[in-house]
Every structure is written in structure tokens, then in C-alpha cells.
């Protein structure tokens, strides 16, 4: 059994084993359900009557109405439905003041509600109506903005502050101003250096349109090194394996139609609106689609780490939980699903148990020899469990970061560190493997007495497990975002590794079309129609 085989396991248990008098005591991590804030609205709660809440807004002035109306023209830049009809009606001096106040209140609740809570529900993907508690929050926010003399503050306070949200907004405005015309490549076999024909010309045209290749080429030119380099750059930016070959995964990415690409951008803006506004003074952010972990402190990026994530068959979920402790020199407790194949290997070759240092326990927790296993019970109430102590073949490596959760996902070191050279890193069985984990541990433990980097290195140089509880919990946010903004303001469209985008995009576009039509109908239909509910 190779080290790689040992590392490729189902990550469904966060067991930190400690040794005491040569026996292994287990610490089992359990946690609450996966969370994306704000929490999904319970289906039993009725939508808020927005007309009633709009009537509660007092203190409207011409200046306040105009400020809200003008802000509505920005809705498409957020990927939200067009509210221009509301804006023009609010600014229409032929309408009565009471009608314009009512329109302004309804439009504000609709727009701020989308910004604050999203257009669709994060869990059900259904259109998301406001409930009374949320409408009350928005009304109070607007009243405070009135008191401060600037109604726009209420809109700004509802806008997500995720660091690349503004970059995606700028991309949305660019796309709306000049809708890109992406030239596709006809379906067919993979292409590589030396190939030529119409499909090579199409690929070269696309790379030129992407700005990755100059236009000094002629139809019929063969696939050359320059085109290969351009394709590698494209693949790397999308987090595809930069092979320089036009493989099927790259072909799918290239051939996403413009409307689908815009839908992807809209859905990614929406996904940012689902996230909690308070990520934590110190927090860890993982974007699975970008194979990247970021450590943030006081609004500044403190560290970046490459990560490996789950394979498609064992894809890593999205959720947020608090890191509570880390384990240096962790034991590896194999969950049942992963242990059974190893037991089969040990049945064929019992010497592997000693070679890899595995410990086997019966149902009472007593250690037993591999030669004491009752193999007749293999398919009938299997009573054995298995663990591996710290060491060079332990796939947990030198440290685990534990944030208890119902998914039993955690961050850990790995013995397969050479695989970080790959651009596409979906190698794990669900958990997140991090590069340079001891540096991350030093950041996590910064300020905690007795745990500087020197002390961490001293412990990991040995073989004794050590659990370190954090003085202050650190929120860990795991997301799956396929459009990201870099520090220089550039936007990258990533490979949809887990094929999760389609459901979100379809649901979002359906809600988008519905809300766009309702906004027009509401303004044209008069006050009675305008009072229709948010959904």
C-alpha cells in the first residue's frame, strides 16, 4: 500500500488521537449544521407586506426621494433586475407627493432587500421574499440615514463588503457596456502542437480576442508553440490544468455562450450577498474553485496558501464555522468507509500493519493484533476500528485545524506535498489540504502565550500529539465562487470544478426575469398593483 493510497481517503471524520500510556484516546469532533449566513428563511413565515412597511417610513424630502431614485439606476451593476421604471416614476413631478413617497419606500425595500439578503434563497434557490423582521431592519436603517441627512447611506449599508464584490460590479458594468462576442471552437477531438485546420484557426481567434495572442497569424497556420503558450495562460487563469492542449474541459470553458457567462457573473454577485457581513476580525477564507486559502486580519490579507480540495466524487461542501483548536502531530482515525479497504489489505498482508504503524481496536476500545481479527464478521456487524499514529506516512501530516461541523471537514497538512505544483488540485477525499501548514498554524496561534513558531517547530519535531485550544475562535468560511477579482482589479472566470453553477444560474435568471417583469407592471399598474408582495 503506497503513501498516496493511504492519503486518498474519505474525509468524513475529524478524529484527533492522543497517546496516553501507549493507548490511543479519541477526541471526536462534532458540530452544528453547515451555515451560510444569512440563514435561509423558513418557508412557513409569510412574506412581509411591503406596502405596509413603506407606509411606516416618515421624513421623506425631495432630496431623499431623488437620492433613492438615482441609486436604483445602479441595480443592473449588481446583477439585479432593472428598477428604472421605479426610478423614473419617483422622479415624475406630475405624480402626487404621497404616491412618490410610497413608490420610493417600496423601491427601497425591494432594492435594499436584494442587496442585503439576496434575490434567491441560498438553500432552496427559490425567489426569496422579505419577512417582517428583515423589512423592519431596512426601515430602521433608512430612518437613521434620513436623520444623518444622506439617504444613500441606507443603500451603502446594505451593499456587500466582500473584498472583490466591487471588482465583479465593475466587470458587470463592462459587460453591459460592450457585450463580449466570444468566438467559439467547434466540437471535436483535442488539439495540440502540429495540428491545423479550421478548429485551430478558431482557437487562435479566441486566444487573440482574450488578449493572450497577437494578431500576426494567418488562416491555416499550424498549432505552434506561441498558440500553446497562449492556451496555457488561459488554462492557468481558469484553474484548468495548463497542458497547452485543447482538451475537452478547456473546450467546454471556451464555449460557454455570452449569456451564460453573464449569468455566471450575476450568480457570483448573488453568492457574495448570501455571506455574513461580519466575517470576523481574524478569519480564514477558502475558495474551493480557486484552490486558495486566505487568512485575514483587521480587514487586511495576512497570508495566502494554496490548497487541495475534494475530488468531484467527494466534493468539499460550503459552510462557515469557528475554528476551536488545532492538533500538532495528529493521529489519523480512519472512518469505517475508509478503514474497510485497509482491513482487506491487512488480511492479505498482515505485515502492512507494522510497516505503517496502524493500531487496531475492538468495540470496547482495547488494542488487538491483526492476527486476532475475526474475519467471519466481515459483513456482519464489523466491530473493529483503526488508527495511525503521527509519523512520515500519516496522511494528516504535522497539523490539523479543527472547526467542528456536521460535514466533518477540516484543514490539514499532507504527505503529498509535491502535488501542490499542479494548477488543478482536486485530489482530496473532501477535507482541505493546505500548503505550508505550520506557517498557518503560527498565524492562528499568534498572540497565544507560549505558542510562537519556534515552539510549534519544537513540538512537531517530535512524535507526541498535542491539542491546542484557541483563546479566541477564528471563523472559517468555505465558499465555491467561480468568478473572482484579483488584487489588481482583474476578474478571472474559473473552471466550474464541481458543476455547481448551473443550478444557481438557472434559478437566479428565472427570478431575475420574474422580478424585472413585476417591477414594470407594478409602476404601470398604479398604486393598487404597486402594493404587491416582494415575491
SSE blueprint:
Layout: H1 3-7, E1 15-20, E2 23-28, H2 50-55, H3 62-72, H4 84-90, H5 97-117, H6 132-148, H7 152-158, H8 165-177, H9 198-209, H10 225-237, H11 248-254, H12 258-274, E3 282-287, E4 292-297, E5 300-308, E6 319-328, E7 332-334, H13 336-348, H14 351-356, E8 359-361, E9 367-368, E10 385-388, E11 399-402, E12 411-412, E13 432-434, H15 437-444, H16 453-460, E14 466-479, E15 483-485, E16 491-493, H17 501-525, H18 527-530
Parallel strand pairs: 3-14, 12-13
Antiparallel strand pairs: 1-2, 3-4, 4-5, 5-13, 6-11, 6-14, 7-10, 8-9, 8-10, 11-12, 15-16
Helix pairs in contact: 3-4, 3-5, 4-5, 5-7, 6-7, 8-12, 12-17
Folded structure, characterized:
The chain is α+β, with helices and mostly antiparallel strands and 535 residues long. It is 37% helix and 16% strand. It has 18 helices and 16 strands. The strands form four sheets. Strands 3-4-5-13-12-11-6-14 form an eight-stranded mixed β-barrel. It has a four-stranded antiparallel sheet with strand order 7-10-8-9. Strand 11 (399-402) and strand 12 form a beta hairpin. Helix 3 (62-72) crosses helix 5.
Amino acid at each position: 500500500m503506497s503513501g498516496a493510497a493511504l492519503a486518498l481517503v474519505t474525509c468524513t471524520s475529524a478524529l484527533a488521537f492522543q497517546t496516553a500510556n501507549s493507548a490511543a484516546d479519541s477526541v471526536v469532533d462534532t458540530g452544528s449544521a453547515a451555515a451560510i449566513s444569512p440563514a435561509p428563511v423558513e418557508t412557513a413565515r409569510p412574506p412581509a407586506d411591503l406596502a405596509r412597511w413603506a407606509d411606516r417610513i416618515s421624513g421623506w424630502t425631495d432630496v431623499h426621494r431623488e437620492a433613492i431614485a438615482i441609486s436604483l439606476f445602479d441595480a443592473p451593476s449588481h446583477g439585479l433586475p432593472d428598477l428604472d421604471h421605479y426610478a423614473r416614476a419617483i422622479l415624475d413631478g406630475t405624480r402626487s407627493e404621497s404616491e412618490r413617497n410610497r413608490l420610493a419606500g417600496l423601491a427601497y425595500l425591494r432594492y435594499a432587500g436584494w442587496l442585503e439578503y439576496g434575490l434567491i434563497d441560498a438553500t432552496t434557490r427559490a425567489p426569496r421574499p422579505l419577512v417582517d423582521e428583515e423589512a423592519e431592519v431596512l426601515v430602521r436603517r433608512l430612518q437613521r440615514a434620513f436623520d444623518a441627512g444622506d439617504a444613500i447611506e441606507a443603500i451603502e449599508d446594505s451593499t456587500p463588503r466582500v473584498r472583490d464584490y466591487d471588482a465583479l460590479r465593475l466587470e458587470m458594468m463592462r459587460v453591459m457596456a460592450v457585450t463580449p462576442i466570444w468566438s467559439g471552437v467547434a466540437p471535436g477531438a483535442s488539439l495540440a502542437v502540429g495540428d491545423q485546420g479550421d478548429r485551430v484557426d478558431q482557437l487562435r481567434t479566441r486566444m487573440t480576442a482574450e488578449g493572450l495572442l497577437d494578431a500576426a497569424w494567418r488562416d491555416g497556420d499550424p498549432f505552434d508553440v506561441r498558440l500553446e503558450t497562449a492556451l496555457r495562460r488561459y488554462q492557468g487563469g481558469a484553474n484548468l490544468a495548463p497542458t497547452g492542449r485543447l482538451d475537452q474541459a478547456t473546450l467546454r470553458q471556451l464555449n460557454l455562450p455570452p449569456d451564460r457567462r453573464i449569468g455566471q457573473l450575476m450568480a457570483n454577485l448573488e453568492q457574495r450577498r448570501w455571506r455574513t457581513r461580519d466575517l470576523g476580525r481574524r478569519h480564514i477564507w477558502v475558495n474551493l474553485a480557486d484552490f486558495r486559502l486566505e487568512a485575514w486580519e483587521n480587514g487586511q490579507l495576512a497570508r495566502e496558501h494554496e490548497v487541495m480540495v475534494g475530488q468531484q466524487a467527494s466534493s468539499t461542501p460550503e459552510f462557515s464555522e469557528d475554528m476551536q483548536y488545532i492538533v500538532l502531530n495528529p493521529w489519523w482515525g480512519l472512518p469505517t468507509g475508509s478503514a474497510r479497504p485497509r482491513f482487506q489489505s491487512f488480511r492479505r498482508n498482515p505485515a502492512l500493519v507494522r510497516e505503517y504503524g496502524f493500531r487496531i481496536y475492538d468495540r470496547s476500545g482495547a488494542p488487538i493484533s491483526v492476527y486476532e481479527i475475526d474475519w467471519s464478521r466481515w459483513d456482519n456487524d464489523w466491530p473493529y476500528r483503526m488508527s495511525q499514529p503521527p509519523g512520515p506516512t500519516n496522511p494528516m501530516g504535522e497539523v490539523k485545524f479543527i472547526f467542528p461541523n456536521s460535514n466533518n471537514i477540516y484543514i490539514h497538512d499532507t504527505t503529498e506535498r509535491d502535488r501542490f505544483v499542479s494548477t488543478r488540485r482536486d485530489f482530496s477525499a473532501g477535507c482541505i489540504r493546505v500548503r505550508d501548514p505550520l506557517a498557518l498554524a503560527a498565524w492562528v496561534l499568534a498572540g497565544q502565550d507560549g505558542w510562537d513558531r519556534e515552539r510549534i517547530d519544537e513540538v512537531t519535531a517530535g512524535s507526541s500529539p498535542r491539542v491546542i485550544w484557541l483563546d479566541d475562535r477564528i471563523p472559517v468560511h468555505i465558499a465555491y465562487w467561480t468568478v473572482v477579482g484579483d488584487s489588481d482589479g482583474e476578474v478571472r472566470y474559473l473552471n466550474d470544478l464541481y458543476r455547481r453553477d448551473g443550478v444557481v444560474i438557472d434559478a437566479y435568471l428565472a427570478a431575475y426575469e420574474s422580478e424585472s417583469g413585476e417591477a414594470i407592471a407594478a409602476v404601470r399598474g398604479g398604486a393598487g398593483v404597486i402594493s404587491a408582495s416582494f415575491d
